[in-house]
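[09:14] KT: can someone run the structure on this one? pasting the chain below
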Amino acid sequence: MIVVDSNILAYLYMEGAHTGAAEALLERDEDWAAPVLWRSELRNILTGYLRRGYLTLEEAGNIQSEAEDLMSGAEYEVDSRSVLDLVYKSDCSAYDCEYIALAMRLGTKLITLDSGLLRAFPDVAVKLTSGP
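[09:31] RB: done, structure tokens below
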């Protein structure tokens, strides 16, 4: 099991520079987890693409639905005290620290491209790569 952030999910469903790496990650480990927050964050990403005309409303809805299907049963509430402790120890947002808190709780890694998380939590956050 691995924890993925909302950007990894976006890369998986929206063609771009990191899509291949996200697809390869899913092939290597299909047991993905995320805090419930991922849903709102993905909707926010989709909103940006929708407003810039890169996606239709139907495409955005389909991406959200597919991602929700993938993550069904793998969404977790995160302890607020754990998040606040991580915020206190870093310059990262509470939103970002939810992913770290969940990875720590599950005893696994967070896969991300967020440079702040990678720098602040090198023992937990791992950079998305296309390699094995």
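[09:33] KT: thanks! The chain is about 55% helix and 10% strand.
[09:34] RB: yep, looked fine to me
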